[in-house]
Amino acid sequence: MALTEPTVEAIVHREPPRGRSLWVDARRRFLRNRAATVSLVVLVLIALFAFFGQFLTPYDRATVDFSLIGINAQQGYPSLETRRYFGTDMEGRDLYARTVQGTRLSLMIGIVGSLVAVVVGTLYGAIAGYVGGRVDGVMMRIVDILLSIPFMFVLILLLVMFGRSLLMLFIGIGLISWLPMARIARGQTLSIKNKEFVEAAIATGVRPLTIILRHIVPNLAGVVIVYATLLIPEMIIYESFISFLGLGVQEPNTSLGALISRGAAQLGNGVPWQLGFPLFFFVTMLFAFYFVGDGLRDAIDPKDR
Amino acid sequence: MSVATQSQGQGGGGETPLLSVRDLRVTFEIRPRNAWPWTPSRRLRAVGGVSFDLAPGEVLGVVGESGSGKSTLARAIVGTVPAEGLIRFDGEDIARLSPEGRRARRRDIQMVFQDPLAALNPRMTVGEIVAEPLLTHFPRTPRAEVRRRVGEILERVGLLPSMINRYPHEFSGGQCQRIGIARALILRPRLLICDEPVSALDVSVQAQVVNLLRELRRDMGLAMIFIAHDLSVVRHVSDRILVMYLGRLMEIAPARALVAEPRHPYTQALIASVPIPDPVLERARTHPVLEGDLPSPLAPPSGCVFRTRCPKAREACAAEVPPAFEVGPAHRAACLFWDEPTPAFGRAAGAVAAAAEGAA
After folding, report:
1. Alpha helix (H) ranges present in B55-202?
2. CB-based contact B121 A14, cutoff 8 Å
3. What is d(CA A44, CA A54) in angstroms, rounded to the nearest whole number?
4. B71 CB within 8 Å of a chain A CB
5. B2-30+41-120+193-203+222-281+303-359 topology per CATH
6. Which of A17, A49, B216, B249 is the most exposed place for a label (fewest CB within 10 A)?
């Protein structure tokens, strides 16, 4: 074997070895958690389905097949030959295309709500906690007041007053989602800001905003990520509930909640696929999000278990 | 020790001091639990009227038991807690600087912390941690230069420059403390404040870190304030020692004089309680035991704060706060009766001795 011994110079001039960051550690622990890993794969598949599923079908979500109206139970059943993979709905529209679009909308609602919570909630909570004193008191009382308003009610009022639109729905969901996150972030900040590394940064002369962004927020990230993952299904449920009430998105757009609502209404008419397919995606997605969230929590903060 | 003699001269008021602290007071407002917004806060005086000077390149040790205000004193000088009184650094009153001016001044005063791991951000690499002060004060330093200086300072504190991409949790306590020292020194400060830098370390590692600090001080001409509750460590590194009790200065003197002829009864008790590293001698001597506990800083005793535990206490002690008397060359002690001999440490010591005899 002609293995050449590395010279001293070679060792000295080698690239400094990469350290094991806490994130790398967390990833390893997460991947060891089988339920969480499988759920993550499922989520990726669902996301692929939601964003690229449309390419697999010749039908779109809005075209009504008049020949199928009224004989849904006999003709509109799921079939690979007619390429109606999930059958058709009451109006003779392709349920596969509609489920793809509904899943996409539900995912987007969940992710947008969660993103707003992460960005606004984390910064708001971190600033309140770090500054402390009066500022903290005022900022957190505002959160308390907003939290005490029955939001479902306000959201429904908003949708009724300004008309049903996707934008209104996003705004409504965004408005609620960050409040609990702000409280969580503030609580964590209170414990982090008394750590000596923050004091070291102050003593060095680092500016307060930089301290929040460089020293507080990265150390909040663990809790925030976990909470954000668990927030996504919550947001999806919110939206579904609104859509179930018939106040969510407008036709021809649809969401899982709206599909489930219509499917449930047709339950006695021999068309179980109209409820089954949307419900399957809804339940699977929520299940997977909760498992991933739990896995992340165990992985990021092993002490917390 | 040339520095020691130099600092003795300084105590008499020779050359201009690097740091001059006059009547420094730190008061915390304590909110009682479950208080209404209008209930007044209680005032906790953590540091009350401490004055001293520090010459360039001098090491001042600060000792005192837990809760004596040593750490608060350090934080007041560094500027992480608000303080009243005068802190003059290099002739400039830093307490009165604008926030911006103060931030710039912080370059010259750096701090090393007690808990080595907690003082390092767990999400940052060692390289980022050590470079932070440099990039804070000189944000436009080129990357290669930053890397060179970080490597240099890591090597100086006894670490390998190849460790820059590692994270704090991959290091031992002693190594973490070296990282903390590297961060404090990368800007070449003139004053380094060490807040119990070795209390959290193993004894063997303590010696390494203390020796590292001594070397750095010699090579870089650093002035240091070295805080510890362990007099034997402080004696080893300091030119002068300041003794604190309940936020007040009890005695300040050149290290050798303080240990050889302590004037304040509290200092005498502290020195008498330093363990002797010889089991025979250690067992043979009678331990003077300080009676009672540290009084609450929320309600300190009137007059001399030490009088509740002092064997020499008299009525006069309760009347007024004793000033710091000049009791020797560069030697001050805050005791009205410093020139009277201290009685043995009272009944407690006698009781211990009697119990020991009874057992034998």
Report:
1. 70-78, 99-105, 126-137, 143-156, 173-185
2. no
3. 16
4. no
5. Rossmann fold (3.40.50)
6. A17
- Domain membership flag for residue A9: no
CA dist., res. B135 & res. B131, Å (int)? 6
> Do residue A203 and residue B111 have CB atoms under 8 angstroms apart?
yes
The pTM of the full predicted model, rounded to 2 decimals, is 0.78
Per-residue pLDDT tens listing for chain A (305 residues): 445 565 666 655 666 777 777 778 888 888 888 888 999 999 999 999 888 878 887 777 777 777 767 676 677 777 777 777 787 777 778 888 888 888 998 888 888 888 888 899 999 999 999 998 889 999 999 999 988 888 778 888 888 888 777 788 888 888 888 898 999 999 999 989 888 899 999 888 888 899 999 999 988 888 888 888 888 888 888 888 888 787 777 777 888 888 888 888 888 777 788 888 888 988 999 889 888 888 888 887 755 44
Residues of A in contact with B133 (CB under 8 A): 204-205
φ/ψ of B327, rounded to 5, equals: -110, -5
B41 reaches A (C-beta below 8 A): no
- Asked if residue A24 is part of any domain, the answer here is no
ipTM of the complex: 0.80
Q: Who among A196, A207, A221 is closest to B113 (CB)?
A: A196
Number of domains in chain A: 1
**Residue A55 lies in domain:** 46-66+83-304
Provide, as residue numbers in chain A, all residues whose Cβ is less than 8 Å from the Cβ of B115.
196
Contacts of B186 in chain A (CB under 8 A): none
Q: Which of B132, B148, B191 to mutate to test the interface with A (most CBs of A within 10 A)?
A: B132
Tokens of A56: 């697999």
**What CATH code is carried by the domain that includes residue A285?**
1.10.3720.10
Give the span between the Cα atoms of B20 and B29, in whole angstroms: 26
Residue A224 located in a structural domain: yes
In a domain, A258, yes or no: yes
